[in-house]
Amino acid sequence: MDLEIADTQRDGWTVVRPSGEVDVATAPALRDRLGEVADDGAARLVIDLEDVDFIDSTGLGVLVGAVRRARTSEGDVRLICTNPRILKVFEATGLHEVFTIGATFDEAVAGEG
Amino acid sequence: MVAEIVLEIPPRLDYLAIVRLVVATAAALDPPLPESRLDDLRLAVTEACSNAIKAHRPEAADEPVVIACHLDDDLFRVDIHDRGPGFDPDALASLPEASDPRRLQHESGLGIPLIKVLTDDVTFRPGAGGTVVSMTLKRPPAPPI
After folding, report:
1. B118 and A CB contact within 8 Å
2. Domain range holding B82?
3. For the domain that residue B134 is a member of, what is the CATH number?
4. Which of A55, B43, B96, B107 could form a disulfide with B103 if both were Cys (CB 3.0 to 4.6 A apart)?
5. pLDDT tens-digit map of A7-44
């Protein structure tokens, strides 16, 4: 099963939007895309999970790696997610405390200029 | 009523989506698990099956990973058999707390904790021929006839 990944620019943030299921088979594609975006100099990332209907621990690990890279470059990663199925996984792992998660782009980047 | 549904897959990660689909479909048989528990099952099975595929010994590449779903009146159990060397789940290092900045150094290690949280019971039985992970979720009572 393929994972489609689109990215756009908005208000100084790079918005990466994967679509599909992020599991151990597809997460490497997301890791690669996030790496390319970081290599292009984008330290402020929004990852929009609204079109993701499944995520496993490998997918979560990719997001953790993206946060670490961004914060090392004095940037950050914010998430957009309203899907209870996905939010539950963040809560089950405690990672909802690691990420800033908003229901919209504006909510996700709130507090940033 | 007792039923068993057995799925055999090559030890390849791109088969995980099929495993999720088959196992969740089996668990949706009447009386179905509630939707939120089906989500728990999909994720727990993905984690266990992913571990099984990664643990599968290269010399056993022609042998399948076996996923067996057992349904009885009260329980849904799925057993995942691999041909790996086995491991001790209690020996796994725990991750730093989410509030600890060192947490960001760890991109893996969430699979087994997730399985434990998402299922009602899980056992790991390592043996000479491989490991069997058994995960159980309670089924809702059948509606009266």
Report:
1. yes
2. 3-138
3. 3.30.565.10
4. B96
5. 999 999 999 999 999 999 999 999 999 999 999 988 89
Q: Closest-CA residue in chain B for A59? A: B107
Q: CB distance A61–B103 less than 8 Å?
A: no
Chain B residues with CB-CB distance to A56 below 8 A = 43, 46-47, 50, 111
Q: What share of chain A in percent tops pLDDT 90?
A: 85
Whether B52 and B133 have beta carbons less than 8 Å apart is answered as yes
State the DSSP code for B2: -
| Structural domain total, chain B | 1
Structural domain boundaries of chain A?
4-108
Q: Do the domain assignments include residue B143?
A: no
Give the pairing of strands A13-22 and A52-55: parallel
CB B26 within 8 A of CB B137: no
**Which CATH class, in words, describes the domain spanning A4-108?**
alpha beta
Q: Is residue B91 scored above 90 in pLDDT?
A: no
> By the CB < 8 Å criterion, does B32 face chain A?
no
